[in-house]
């Protein structure tokens, strides 16, 4: 009975000590006071070191300190005046109210060019049409960007064009040929359409997508930039519609990226929580030297199987999530292995501490050797570490069935470590 109580006490203590630095837990699961304690320990350790501190590390610690000390959950002044901090319920529907004066976009920019879209040949008899007989019946305004990289001062310039559409009478067969803006048919799963009858041109749409997904600007900030720097007034709803239409326009590229991804020699995969409209989803990211592909959905194996499937022939670098284990050519992320080894070093079990120390020392030594080899001429480090790796194989096999204590049962798969080391060193 005493032995069982001792093991239970050790297990509870190990679980309480586990954090993002000693396990695969995400940093958000750490207690609020853990960041301050870790920073104090790091500052004391760095003060006694002979080498100067890394400036990047200082920036990371400063950013982390600001994040941890930032007040959360504070009510805005408007919310503070209400009972219980609740926001006031809207008394009317959003948008234009019945009987209110309408609002339209004023055309204040000068027209740079008038583009006539005239039919070139008769759709009935194929006879060439005379452009002089074109009669305009409609048009639109287009705001777009122009780039001239060959100019002395390359940059962006706004242009305001006016495309015209109309009819031409065919003198051969009498058919009236009409030109119209191009439109794509509706597709299942998409609530936005694709049409040339659009105020925003393709280059300006690309800039809006860059602001949203690359610069991470909100719709309001994007609207502010366009107004202040380019003199263009666009509503946030128009900006949002352009971004969604761009997503539908580039959807065919997704299949091409998946095909190329399946032929890559090494692919890094990871997943993280992602909220959309209050619903908890997961963001799956697959990265290679030339491809970055992501999907948003549930945390299930179906997404990974739909992307990689049976056609994936390369190595998959991932964490210990069980979904990835169906792939035979799988590598474990060394950052996760180092954290697990760090957790073993802090174990109450003497045997687990020794195993964690050996794992941590070997991985660090391999990483240093790999970085040094990358700076010089190509060299195969496998013969140099062959004996160390074989000894570590025996150590892993010795602890393979150690499942009574959580520290000893940490999932450290030697073939994955060996494969990662062999690929990195070759």
From TrEMBL:
<feature type="region of interest" description="Disordered">
    <location>
        <begin position="15"/>
        <end position="108"/>
    </location>
</feature>
<protein>
    <submittedName>
        <fullName>Transposase</fullName>
    </submittedName>
</protein>
<dbReference type="Pfam" id="PF03050">
    <property type="entry name" value="DDE_Tnp_IS66"/>
</dbReference>
<feature type="compositionally biased region" description="Low complexity">
    <location>
        <begin position="77"/>
        <end position="92"/>
    </location>
</feature>
<feature type="domain" description="Transposase IS66 central">
    <location>
        <begin position="199"/>
        <end position="367"/>
    </location>
</feature>
<dbReference type="InterPro" id="IPR004291">
    <property type="entry name" value="Transposase_IS66_central"/>
</dbReference>
<dbReference type="InterPro" id="IPR052344">
    <property type="entry name" value="Transposase-related"/>
</dbReference>
